[in-house]
């Protein structure tokens, strides 16, 4: 059904740690993985599934590690990849950083986790907050208290333990919208969308019931109210804790939140977004002599708002040299290892326009290799504001002890996949 | 919450009325969630890496001493060192007894490590593994559920047959444990044990206990029980383990709302195997599954999509809910493209299937498939594929602009595919053709070698689709002739030159230049060159005689390739016998090329839809193609639709098997230049090598190979030029010296060869009978029969003209029928049929046509058209011609399947007056693809167990009883579609008595 065994390999393909769950695939098969991967890479046909005989390898790469699942059945591939990424998430929460060294330094816990996360190829409890309650790095002595833990694991509420206490009960809500834009070389917007995410940091005692109210157009239509601005969310994805059937029937977002930080939901909005930072560029390449770059950046958002930490990344040929810059504001820097110029503007007020000019030399002997045409990418962050106009209308918090709790909200808009193609 | 922004507005109006309170303690928010345990930082003194460093000599000995130490702490350290050694691949199995001695401990971590050791080494030390049994039994009764679960989980991982039986009692207790954590672990343990010793699990009644757990109050237990049962059922396809009924379905749907994301996937995957009773049940399940589309886990979403795609088949299309459901599917599919690249890849491979099955779902979502610069190559290629599928008149401008952008990238595979995509767009969306052609010309101007070659290949297709429209670009193409080094591009260019020879002044020079290295070319190019030169010759006979002579002799005399040789001979004979006919044949109008390419064959597509999310859907292959031991497992299929009534009860409905035999419904996109040759495919299996010698039974009359034929061509076209006749040299040695006199064109003789020379296959074919009497068809009489020759179903007909006038323009069509029979090509009557003439025609049939159940089942309704009128008749074909060549079941599968098919489906028949012995009967039947799997002799009676498989994947199992001296046979047939039994019986009778 899913994985027969899970392996963690280093970059050379050496097994750092592994766990055989089903015993139906020879563990030595993993030796074929790296040669296979190299072969595919050479042929330019890299693929997340590789097979050798009747064995299939599903793999992902994380820092200097490969996480590989083997199977010889018609496994649920999407489940396997989800699980591998979950593995990365759990290990990262345990060890801060997941890399070769942290696996070696914590092999006992890694074994314990591998034992707990999956059984006979079936993923089990993968919520790292709950896992941390009974799988610890300390050789935990058996205490009576420990025997209570599994109830959370198998509870319908498997993401929150009982008996949490805070002096001050608060919830912090972050509404973060990322703008994805793809602009053609001639300046027309090919595609754009907004991916929103609502994140929580919950510091609430007991087992609170929460209800989140948004200015959701469908909800307003359902309840027959049409005051104020509403937002149509194309697709909404929820954390495990949200009652999906409830949302499906009456658009109520109700849940018992996990403790601490979590992503409550994400949504996608398909409307045309005006690119908040507009880039016009002229890149002229004079073969064998030089490249002239002129980039104009314009803030297409309200004057009151300010975009922070703006970075405009302009690609340059890999054999360019002797950079010279001129900017009307901010700093330009050549990053040769990435073949780009990074123009940083700490604070970019709405409605303003800035210029950057760059000049590079080119060697007289031309580079034979064809180079790709990387786009200009932009990074930025605009606080206090969401492009879609989504708003948190209320957050109701009810706990049987009846405490008062305060919800706090902040809004941020930032760049997501923000690409502008160039002519060169 | 990485943002440094730090002002929070309180949304609710706080009681003190301060509406815009400013909260300043941002640090608390931005700091990561403080870990429950300390000392988590790697690199600190506490790390485990120190255990890896002991590499002294006598290490094992030292460890042994430490393991037996009295100090608990030292023991634990020692076990950790052992595990560390194990991790780096050292053999520490020698320490088995010492490690097992540490098992009795109240330290959970130590216990886990010992268990881990046990799992790894128990198999190599089976005798000593017994030592551990007691502790397991004891731990399964520990007051701590964690320990109980740990014990039962580890137990199942110790794959030592000897100890399994000791574990039954503890497992039984754990399955009934009060703690759900233990129960859910025990549920999985049943699957583990079943894998080691299936019989034991059955005898102990664990399967029933497992089934009971589906009704457990705890959702996690339900989910694991479902997973375990599905796993067991998968390896034992014929066990009726997952007996899904509306009650269990309801329980599963309830648990679905409450269990973990993984549990939801187990349940959804299990639901996907269920077939609802009617459209109402189907709808109610869909309604309860749709909320899962909002789950954050992509795998949950895809599994939900699988259930919905499958159950949707049963909903009437005019139902409002059907439309609603379609609309609900698009957004989650699009969102999957924001997932991690590997998950995107799985999603895209599945979207490719979904778009083919239900194009309406994503038709407005073109933009989301636009390629991003930083997409991994595997994502780029898949997106491109889907873009072509979604291209339509509405979005073509955008798509073309994108494709042109991609075609200037640097990644060779991606660029090639992009260029091809432009060609596909031209063919798919007629309005865009002109723009596509000009885009391709722009790309040719870039002179990037592989771009040029790719562009020429697709332009050839565009010429095929829109003849006489874009030939003005030929000059540009010819400029690039020299740079073409890939066979496909060379073949395409040659095709173009041949096809438009009359417009290219130096066509002969161009083709001649290719001829120089003829033997170094690939077959594809050789075949194309041969055809192109023949075309050239037929168009410009005067200047090109030498050339055609040269290529014919190269192809027939100097080549070892039978295809090339055969094609050479055909042309040669055509040209020499009846050049006018040759012209008609070689320069005939070509069939249209298909708009869609690389479409997955429909039955396979249906099967793959049932496997959404799995490796099968990623490979686009049925599981049987890549999972060992899954042969004979029933292929999954979509349920029949309720609304349209179309084919709902046909035995064929979606039974998605027998894929390999069914020819794809579309002409392959590229490279199939062969197909255009004569628009005929010499369907009867040509015996390779030179045409049959006189001994094959054909009469070979006297005819001069180089007779007057050529003269008549030249004469007709050029007004006579006496020298031409001598142009051809002596006949090649391999050619038979004589041929029958041309009756109605040499080609017919060839057909005769293939059609009626007895095939060695011995497949049963009934004698020809009159299907359409002349009385009823204005003088056209058709008699015919059906046959299966080398895997190809054929309808063999004699058309006789009993009227006074010439008959031409023959065409044929079938009505929908039970097995989807359809002509695989047009009816090949290439010459007019004069009064009192008859002509033999063999029409190859495919089984991918539309399906409708007929009464009787093998009834075929046919319409034949000629220049006079349209005539209808019906005939019945022997079902034996649908028996495919790979219909031999494995013995084991046969036994299991025979048991599995309910007795109600068994039909028994008597075959009277048959005088063959059992071996003769067996071999006779084998000729018609009825395979004898086993033979048993009981009390003088021979029992033959036989299997056959129909083209649509239905298996028929038979038991044939033959008693020496008794001319009456008894045949028992078992089949999941019992309605075919009667027909099969009739075929048996016919096959045996023939």
UniProtKB/TrEMBL annotation, chain A:
Biological process according to GO: intracellular protein transport; vesicle-mediated transport
Keyword tags: Cytoplasmic vesicle, Golgi apparatus, Membrane, Phosphoprotein, Protein transport, Transport
Membrane-protein topology: Peripheral membrane protein
Compartments reported by the entry: Cytoplasmic vesicle, Clathrin-coated vesicle membrane; Golgi apparatus
Ranges where the MHD domain occurs: 168-421
ATP-binding keyword on record: no
GO cellular component, one term: clathrin adaptor complex
SUPFAM superfamilies assigned to the protein according to its UniProt record, in alphabetical order: Second domain of Mu2 adaptin subunit (ap50) of ap2 adaptor, SNARE-like
Record Pfam families: Adap_comp_sub, Clat_adaptor_s
Statement: the UniProt record of this protein carries the keyword Plastid: no
Domain of life: Eukaryota
Chief subcellular location: membrane
InterPro entries: Adaptor_comp_med_subunit, AP2_Mu_C_sf, AP_mu_sigma_su, Clathrin_mu, Clathrin_mu_CS, Longin-like_dom_sf, MHD
PANTHER family membership: AP COMPLEX SUBUNIT MU
Function (record text): Subunit of clathrin-associated adaptor protein complex 1 that plays a role in protein sorting in the trans-Golgi network (TGN) and endosomes. The AP complexes mediate the recruitment of clathrin to membranes and the recognition of sorting signals within the cytosolic tails of transmembrane cargo molecules.
Name of this chain's protein: AP-1 complex subunit mu-2
Taxonomic source organism: Sparus aurata
